[in-house]
Amino acid sequence: MSTYPGGQPPQYQGQNRRLLVILTPFLVLLVAAAATGIGLLVRSAAAEEIRGSAVAEGAGGSTPANVLADGAVRVGDPDAKVTVRVVMDLQCPACKAFEAANGKVLEDAVRDGTAVVEYSVITFLDRASTTEYSSRAGNAAYCVASSGVDDYQSWLSDMFAEQPEEGGDGLPDSALIDIAESAGYSDPAVAQCITDRQYDTYLRTKTDEVLNSGVDSTPTVLVDGEQVTDAAALMSPDGLAPVLAAAR
């Protein structure tokens, strides 16, 4: 795991400067594999600074379509018996591991109508790249959602598959546009939204709300309002499936 560079990122400089330190505890996940022994996954720790909101170039104060009042993107039948909430940062390595393990489980649950999934994409890892990748990717999450949610899970899977390493430049906007187009978001308005960072202010506002609600690490996964804390359920292949089955 890389360490974050020092200093204060300019996107969090504002008239009223406040410091919110997110201490993400080290979580060591021991996942048994049938034929290969035990795999070890260490959840990265980050001390992140959240100071106010910066207005990005473009229409930074816009509100995206197809989102809930708290900023989550709902995918699936809202009348489904089970509701899953996933809080994630697109720069978060543990979130990538969760998506690899359980992304298909959530897609299948939406497809067969057994669960509705609410994706709460936040940004607090801009210091893990040199180009504010976390917030640019978070803005893209709202850009594609505003165009429609039918392809949202496919887009999310592709985004995590292309997640850049911590401490690097992050993906350029052109790559974010390519990923969106390959997932089915070919409307030129989506590309413009990405380059303009149209929902940057909205993203930061919702991020503050989520962090102030008590979320202190990502991914945070809740099933019918109850947080899933079992490491195997979160990180082992299809580990969330029995949790969803028990909630029906």
Distance between the termini: 37 Å
Radius of gyration, rounded?
Answer: 17 Å
**Share of helical residues:** 25-40%
The biggest sheet amounts to: 5 strands, mixed
Mean pLDDT: 82
Low-confidence parts, pLDDT < 50 over ≥5 residues? 1-60
Give the H and E element order. EEEEEEHEHHHHHEEHH
What does this structure look like?
It contains 8 helices and 9 strands. It has 248 residues and is α+β, with helices and mostly antiparallel strands. A 5-stranded mixed β-sheet has the order 5-7-6-8-9, sandwiched between helices. A two-stranded antiparallel ribbon has the order 1-4. Strands 2-3 form a two-stranded antiparallel sheet. A hairpin with a 3-residue loop joins β2 and β3 (37-43). The radius of gyration is 17 Å and the shape is globular. The model is unreliable at 1-60 (pLDDT under 50).
